[in-house]
Amino acid sequence: MEFLALLCKSPKRAEAVKDSLKNYTVHAIRDLTELEESLINYTFDLCIVDSDSFETSQINTVIRLFGRESIVLLTHPEFDAQRLESLPLQIKADNMHLELQPILELLLNKKNTRNQNNAILHREPASRTPEKPPGAFAKRDLPGSDFLYRHVLVNFAKVLTAHFDIDKLLSHFMESLAEIAKVNKISIMLREKNVFVIKAQKGLDPYLARELKLDLKSTLVYHLAQHGGIIQRTATAENVDRMRIFQEMGRLQCILSFPMIYKGRLEGIVNIGEKITGEPFYNDELEVIYTLCNYQSAAIKDIDLYHQIQSQKDFIRNILSNMNSGVITIDKDETIRVFNPKASEILGIGFEDIIGKDLRNLPSPLGDILYETMVDGIFYERHEALLRPRRIQLGINSYRLDDERGNVAGAGIIFSDISDLKRFEEEKRRAEKLRMMHLITGQIAHSIKNPLSSIMTFTQLLEEKFEDMEFRQFYKTTVLQSVDRLNKLINKILFLSDSLEFAAEAQDVNVIIEEVGEAVNQEMPEGVNLVVNKLEKPAFINADRPLLSKGLYYLIVSCAERLQKGDSIILEANTIGNKISHIEIAVTCPDTRFIEGPVGSALTFSSEAPSEDLDVALIQKIAEGHKGSLMIKQVNAGSSVVISIPACDIAG
User: Fold this and answer.
1) Closest CA to 589 of 612, 563, 565, 609
2) What is the CATH code for 499-648?
3) Distance (Å, rounded) from C-alpha 417 to C-alpha 395?
4) pTM metric for this prediction
5) Which fold, 3-121?
6) What's the angle, vertex CA 498, arms to CA 493 and CA 503, rounded to 5?
7) Which terminus of the chain is less hemmed in, N or C, by CB atoms within 10 Å?
């Protein structure tokens, strides 16, 4: 990665430049004194100067240090460029985000081409033996080398006591390297995503160490990853790649770079400078360092894995500790492994009293559910169970745990105390029934009042018009109709108020709706039709046929009273599910008074047809007695009252 110097006194502007050049390493410098100190230790590819931060004479000094071809000047409207000794490339600061990076790429390409040509022109003939560069490898045979190895291994063994602390690990590793090679500068770079950054160093400027980075496009990184060997900074550059490696190692102030490879992937780089004695590096030293680098790479990955596992464990523990539901898991040996605080609170069992124990220590039926889920693969979903002796109502879901190979490794349950919810639902049902009773009572009073008013009115007129035969005939018909309405209404009220005893037997649905159709046809108003749609094949339900038929009869007759000539009511049956789990009996008519939804909470009563409201309430009671449900559905321009009852086989 190219190393750029940025001369700028404004921290805000320096950050803006760095944001524009994220693909480069940019070292911000505030004054010329700091620049001179940086040039002693580092070589910069290019220099960017903010003209607003320095006087013209200072900018001329920078141009003389770097050369006009290596300067990019950020100019501002008030800057007078003519006062410069030579004119470098200039960019308006306002256009920096658009122009700076393309200009730098162009300048760096030109500089690399020029350096490549110079390397070719000054390349020595192949027949000539090149001069041995400083720090070159050499052999030695010292009687104390075994002692050195033992000493290094003892020192490196400190790594094992680092207790998964990456900082201590790197510190001990650098101490081991210093013992082996007695070098002046060491830096250890580790991979963070796609960038290598210095994580530990000795002898480098701390600020610059934070700034120096190598990405995957770095020539040094590429060669270490591809070849996996030691790279030495040579005195001459035979080609462009060697020249770039020379520059990158120069910035790192090292003469040797060692790869840290783990499972075939470059995970880090160890850079070391010259020996403090000026001696060359010996083969045995390099072999030991190379070996330790690879061990170091494995140790670092182990520490990373350890911290990842710890982080995941802490994360899971935090979730389990703050869950509003109890969680229990067992392993394949039927031993309890997870028992979170909420489970302890619900069951009244301490964590230390149950963890690590056999699942049979759990109160029934929790242990049975865990065992069945793990061994038999029976999964419980929204299962309700009563926990004795405390009589706690639980809602339970179970799941099986598998290992990485898909084999059964255990089972778990998630459960909640739904006792309060059940009490609330029961209170809600009572309140709903009370509300419906009040509504029905009002409807009953309204239904009784209408025919009684007719009877009272005509009775008062009877004495006055007794001799009028036409009035007497009209009185007879009207009063009889009103009495008949009262009689039917009283029968419905008695039917609704009684505790019905259902004598359920296997009944063919086609027989039931055919029987209801025949009874209703005798009561249908003139011009109103009843259409009966039976199933193609017999289908059976456990039903009390007289009660179910009577409820359907009342409902259809009440609906028919509201219709006009030409209207039709449809009575039909349908099957639900491929294996016919339920059978629906639907009464559909052109009436949209009811709100779509389950009857009981969504039913709305109307003063226009109180009798029909009682019929819906009555059919709901019959449906519940058959372990079924009632639903109002909107169908085209009308509504459909649908009874759903579980199906059974012919044997019941």
Assistant:
1) 563
2) 3.30.565.10
3) 7
4) 0.49
5) Rossmann fold (3.40.50)
6) 120
7) C
